[in-house]
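Hi there,

I know you've been waiting on this one. I reran it after we fixed the sequence typo, so this is the corrected version. Both the input and the resulting structure follow.
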Amino acid sequence: MWGSILTEWVSLIFRWLHVVAAIGWIGSSFYFIHLDLSLKPGSDLPAGVQGEAWQVHGGGFYRIVKYLVAPAQLPDELTWFKWEAYTTWLSGFTLMVVVYYLDAELFLVDKSILDLTPLQAGLFSLCSLALAWLLYEAACRSGLARHELPFAVGGYLFLVALTYAFTHVLSGRGAFNQIGALIGTIMVANVFLVIIPNQKKIVAALLAGKSPDPRLGKAGKERSVHNNYLTLPVLVLMISNHYPLLFATRYNWVIVAIILALGPVIRHFFNERHAGRRSPWWVWGVAAAGMIAIGVLSAAGPRVAKASALSVAPTFANVQDIILSRCSMCHAAEPVWAGIVTAPKGILLDDPDHIRRNARLIGRNAAWASAMPPGNVTEMTADERAVIAAWIASPGN
């Protein structure tokens, strides 16, 4: 019991830290992207200044200038925006270990997709994370990233192919988390290995009275642009585990493909507005079409083949038998599943009243999607899911 309670508290603490750090990282990133794009030239600016921006916040006025390289005299202190990114990744990886690796049987493995042991699933997750980042890094260092449009299209297809592979190896929830973690790893590695080191080399050169290598700034800017366009998709992927109709349905990998396309398109709209250019309002038509497509795809049901048409209308007794045999070992006043002390999310399914009261939740998680039982550990069949769906759809259930 105490092990389960400790795991729950560790998960809560690091999830809180992860969210706070991510807000700090993404917030500062969005702010500086806006600032960079909104700078305007001025006649009274010091030498070497690209532009300025006037802003008002909290009752105060701010005049911000950007030097192309650095001022002639550097201040004694410089604020480096890096720990937000590092803390986001470290707390996120800790969460991944606590939630997905230690409970792989529930959240990472789905034996109806591929019969993996928890160790095999964890090793696959960890190794694919490292390999995918290495491939991205190799592509950037080879010079391919200098060709922006082909690199963007190739990167998109690369991520979609990985998503397809992940959804055919891991559980739907595990696959969504995996592709989100992969993108997050790429983004933090860009900060840790390129953006910050290059900035430090530039500062060191200036302090030594030398001219910095212009390639350092260009490489850092390149990676910063990648992070800019990856931010919105990774946010959706990291909260997707709350939405079974996204990750636990038949076309989950196509849903991710749409999300990976919509995020950069929406960022393009804001980037253009921040730069003072003509707003591409067509973006919202594309976004609306994409969201409608996701809604339609999420209604396709779980991946397992649908059962044949039911010969007779299911009764509540049929549904109760299924719920008691497949769900009540966790969703009970006193769960009997090892490691679970209280019913997940406080949802009880151990008597007729509780089952009827939670009918819509049951449908959303176990009939229209295959999120429950997690990892299908109790081996609920397609026929049983069809029975539940038909009972919920029947009038006066």
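Quick highlight: The chain has 14 helices and two strands.

Best,
R. S.
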